[in-house]
Design brief:
Number of domains: 1
Oligomer: single chain
């Protein structure tokens, strides 16, 4: 990698990191299209390298929220630990899944979650903090079980497609757990940090990660995520939700277009 390419990759990382901190995604939802479409890495290598960057990026964003006391740590632990277990299993089988399946599966999930988030943004807020739904689980046991199930789903996708799972966690946390967008963002980032670790280890063992690209992205994404976490508190709830949905739709379209036109 040339110095110029390293700098360009780091700038991509900075932008991705800022969006990650703002919207509660680890950044994989944007990194995979960039690595696959711009830098021409294979689907599997893009997914593995993305996951390598997701953990420190998410931790940086989570730290920004933790400092403000906005993170439901208990919820993040339930989601994160369950997701880490699932990610461990699915990372081992990721290299047996065709690249086109990985990309198209990712795109479909991204677009579905985007539509869900935009629809939620159209609902009237229940209170001044921007909640549009109340928690659907009335007992601690049912709530914790739901958190575990969400973690298993997000973790499974993390291992297969290289995403931390934030694009799944945020919409579900808003729609089913009664969080406002900023609370869901904070929980998502801490959960992603936990979920990503086993997948990174396994992809490293299997030799799927391109470390130079990953390190270049980290140079920008880690400070960027902290900046994004600070910025989100200044943006109205409805605007952040719609922007999040648009971001996801754009990422999903990029993945599909790349797979159809420029298969690697």
């Amino acid at each position: 990698m040339t110095p110029i390419l390293f700098i360009i990759t780091a700038l991509f990382g900075l932008i991705i990191g800022m969006l990650s901190g703002m919207f509660g995604v680890g950044g994989g939802v944007m990194m995979i299209p960039v690595l696959n479409l711009v830098f021409r890495l294979s689907a599997l290598t893009s997914a593995a390298t993305s996951l390598f960057v997701v953990a420190p990026t998410s931790l940086s964003g989570a730290y920004g929220h933790i400092r403000k006391g906005k993170v439901d740590v208990k919820a993040a632990l339930f989601i994160g630990l369950a997701g880490a277990c699932a990610s461990t299993v699915t990372s081992w089988v990721s290299d047996r899944i065709p690249g086109i399946v990985i990309i198209l599966l990712t795109a479909c999930l991204i677009i579905y979650c985007a539509v869900t988030m935009i629809q939620g943004a159209m609902k009237p807020a229940l209170d001044k903090e921007g909640h549009t739904s109340s928690c659907r689980f009335k007992t601690p046991a049912s709530l914790n079980l739901a958190r575990v199930c969400l973690g298993l789903f997000a973790g499974s996708m993390a291992g297969i497609v290289g995403l931390g799972g934030g694009f799944i966690i945020v919409p579900f946390a808003v729609g089913f757990f009664g969080y406002n967008f900023k609370q869901a963002t904070a929980v998502s980032l801490l959960s992603i940090t936990i979920i990503s670790v086993p997948g990174i280890v396994i992809h490293a063992i299997l030799g799927h990660i391109w470390y130079l690209y990953g390190l270049a992205l980290m140079v920008g994404s880690i400070p960027g995520a902290n900046i994004g976490a600070r910025l989100v508190s200044r943006i109205p709830e409805k605007v952040t939700r719609i922007a999040f949905g648009i971001l996801l739709v754009a990422s999903g379209i990029m993945l599909v277009v790349n797979q159809v036109l420029f298969v690697v």
